[in-house]
Task: structure prediction
Amino acid sequence: MGVAIRGTGSALPEKILTNFDLEKMVDTSDEWIRQRTGMSERHIGQKETVPSLASAACRRALEKAGKKAEEVELIIVATCTTEMLLPCAACRVQNILGAKDAIAFDINAACGGFLFALNTAHHYIESGACNNALVVGSEVLSEIIDWTDRGTCVLFGDGSGAVYVEKTEEGDGSGIIGMSQGSNGMAGKMLYCRGRVVKGETEPEINSEDLLVHMNGGEVFKFAVRQVPICIRKALDMAGLQPEDIDMYLLHQANSRIIESIAKTLKQDIKKFPMNMEKTGNTSSASIPILLDELNREGKIQKGQKLMLSGFGAGMTFGACALIW
Ligand code: COA
Result:
């Protein structure tokens, strides 16, 4: 028995913020952002929320899989930006979808969250606790970004990506074949946010600047290029594969230079590393499933191909998943 992805979906807010818009907000330039990050524009939530984007992405994933919400047994939303503490985003998604028989809960592993959620769903299904799951990454990062800090505000965007996974039958040939994940809480200060101001609420009396993302970009960069290849190799070992056996690497869309460096470390052609951060920015836990959905809808993934998904994020957290499509 295995676990395979049967449907993908994604949702992006309508409003687009370009590098040229950012030039008017902070001391930056389109050229700097494109050269240093690979990004040109990103989507920014206005009315959209973590659950509204997540449920739109889930509906598309269910449609693609030919499933109904009532059939869903587990919903895991990976998010670090849900605007309500209680109830969790996954329960709100359950309510929006009408997935009345699902177990629903959130996971916060920041940008690494989708891999953590996928791994958890994999274990639930493998153990027999349930037969299927919606695994979602959904973020409205724009609400916790310091729009006066050029070192962070140019990087992030909002959005959601979802996959519908289910138990496979003997001899199916598709599914997850290797997973690896880890955390390094000792490096937590590289990227943190103490709390948040909720849209429409009055500012709290404590220093509101402190309720925004703080990041040491250089340290995060070094962490990612060192840790992600190690994590990928562990998932490859579990799957009994070598880097060259993988047809496509779908990595967290944090920075094109990080991805280029990882490709070099793994001695793999950069053509195997599709990227979409140019249009989406870094959407945190949503970036990998958004990219997966885009490729799937464009017919760029063939049955039987081997994929590697891998991400990293605040915590610090990191994860990888090898699968056969
Ligand atoms: N526009 C113009 N200049 C900028 C800028 C911006 N948006 N942001 C920073 N700079 C400046 C810096 O102030 C610095 O100027 P100085 O030399 O006068 O001090 C210069 O550019 C170089 O800064 P540096 O931080 O060394 O640039 P970098 O090449 O490391 O790129 C990041 C910065 C943030 C793009 C890069 O470090 C990065 O992507 N890190 C990883 C971040 C990440 O992935 N976070 C999410 C994790 S899930």
About this structure: The first strand starts at residue 2 and ends at 11.
